[in-house]
Fold this protein.
Amino acid sequence: MFQSLAGKRVLVTGASSGIGAATAGLFAECGAVVGLHYNTGRDAAVSLHEKIRSAGGTSFLLQADLLDRTACSSLVGEFTRLAGGIDILVNSAGAFTGNTPFQKLGLDAWDRAIGLNLTAPFIISRAAFTHMQEHGGGKIISISSIAAKYGGSESSIHYGAAKAGLEAVTKTLARAGAQHNILVNAVQPGVIDTPAHKKIGRMSLDERLKSIPLRRAGTPLDVAQMCVFLASEAGDYITGQIYSVSGGD
C-alpha cells in the first residue's frame, strides 16, 4: 500500500524532533524524497538527514523561523527548487508557547501561538496549494491537537484556539482543493510522549493518562503512521477530515 510513496516529494515542517522527525523518517523509509525543515534544532535535523542518506534515501535540510512570514512564504519554493516539486506537505511544526492562566496571558504569547500554530501553516499550505494546483494535485496534512477538541485548559487557551483554527483551515482548503485533486486533512494527536511536556513543566503524565481509555501515552510513530496512511494511495478518497490519534480520548 505504501509503495505508492516511493519517489514522492514530501516537505515536513518541524522535522527535527518529536512527531515531525518520526513522520519524516517514516516517509523516507517508504522511499519518499523528504524535505527536513527545522528552526533551532539543526543538530537533530542533520542527524536525521545523515540517517536517511546512509540508508540510501534522499533528503534536504531547510532552515526557517516560522514566526517570520517571509521565511514561511519562501519555504515551499526552496523545497521545490531542491526536489523538483512538491507532492505532499505535512505541517508538523508547532509549539505550546507558555503555560499561563488566560487572565494573565500576555498578548505577545497569544500572538506567538497563533503565528506559529495557525498563521505559519496557512501561509505554507497556500504556497503548496498553488504549486499543486499547477501540477496535477497533491496532499496537505496538518498536525492539530486534542486541545482543539476540548478547547485546551485555562493555561493553554491560546494553543487550543490556534489548533482549532488550523482544523477550520483544513476543511476550507479541502473544499477548495477537491476540483484540483488536492486532498487536505488533519491529524489530531492526543497525549503523545515527547520532550515537549517537560518543556512546559509537565514532569509526569500519570494523572492525565488516567482519563485515556487505552491508559497510555501515544508515540510519535503512532501519529506518523496516520500521516503516511493519508498520504498513500489508501487515502486517495479522503479529504476534509480530522483524524484523532488519541487512544480513545
Notes: Residues 107-134 form the longest helix (28 residues). The chain has a mean pLDDT of 94. The CA atoms of residues 120 and 192 lie 22 Å apart. Residues 2-242 form a domain with the Rossmann fold fold (CATH 3.40.50.720).
